[in-house]
Amino acid sequence: MVDLVVIEDSAILSMLNDVKFTSEIPCLQNKIEIFKAGPTPCGSCAQTRKKRQRQEMAALKACLGNLSSDKKIVLKKLLDAKKVRIVYAKPDGEIVQLTF
Predict the structure, then answer these.
(1) Within 10 Å of residue 80's Cβ, how many Cβ atoms?
(2) Sign of the torsion formed by the C-alpha atoms of 73, 76, 78 and 80
(3) Can you give the pLDDT at residue 5?
(4) CB-based contact 1:80 (threshold 8 Å)
(5) What are 99's strand-pairing partners?
(6) What are the residue boundaries of the structural domains of the chain, listed by start?
(7) How many angstroms separate the CA atoms of 55 and 96, rounded?
């Protein structure tokens, strides 16, 4: 068991692709489509998609930080961690570092 797992963007993307996480953690359900590559190479479309992906990633981190105590325990168990840390920015720009 790992003492501390820091959940970064890459970890969230991995969790989105793992049915163990998506079936247990409500925040992660039905979100993988948002992070898939777009069908067109249009520059403006790509910028819009990237902006939406950044917003969704921040929302996912906030959602994970606001999980119920029971779901936080499940998340730690799935990650095989004693503690989990999430760092994200609120819409007003404030940086939140949450460890549970």
Answers:
(1) 9
(2) negative
(3) 96
(4) yes
(5) 85
(6) 2-99
(7) 15
Token couple for 32: 């993988």
Mean pLDDT of 19-37: 93
pTM for the full predicted model: 0.87
Task: Of 2, 16, 4, give the one whose Cα is nearest residue 61.
Answer: 16
pLDDT in tens, 33-72: 998 877 777 788 888 989 999 999 999 999 999 999 999 9
8 Å CB contact between 53 and 46? no
Q: What is the Cα–Cα distance from 49 to 70, expressed in whole angstroms?
A: 33
Ramachandran region of residue 16, left (φ > 0), alpha (ψ -120 to 50) or beta? alpha
